[in-house]
Amino acid sequence: MTTTSGESTDPRHAVWIALSDLFLDTDVRLHYVYIVRILAASPYSIEELARILNDEVTPVLQHNLMQVAGEWALFPDEWVIAEVSKRRDKRRWLPNVVNLREDWAILSIWIAKVRADASYWDALASLVPLFLSKNSAPCVRSEDLATIYEHDLKPLLLPGCRKLHQESPTIYPSEQEIEANWQRLPI
Length: 187
Hints:
single chain; about 190 residues; 8 helices
């Protein structure tokens, strides 16, 4: 279904488009907040979202992560919808070769938390930048944010951040820089 402006009203299409960001040849953590927002608002269970990722989106887009220089900006929405729709009900003859388990583990936890408490999304959107930039934009710090920072974000994001910092220390913040970003936030 589409609206008069040409936008799809099928909630599955929005899920496909959001999940397609996981296949960009870039730091996909930049897209986590957007993906969580779209998937948390969808009518699908966490299990169904995982199935959509593995059985519908991955077979179509995994090739991008196997190229020397894959698409790094965004896939066109119409293209994602058309390609996934075309292949959705066809039997797969090739297995999924890309591993998105780490990304999905983080996203599924956050989707569940946002669904349980909608205010969690605001905190997530405010805090995730601490892990992505050496000079993250300030937000208001509170006890709720401190709990989310310490218990929900640090354990999930720090292992990947350490690895990225080792590979590209001029781009990605160190653990100390992440903590300094957190300390600089106004109380």
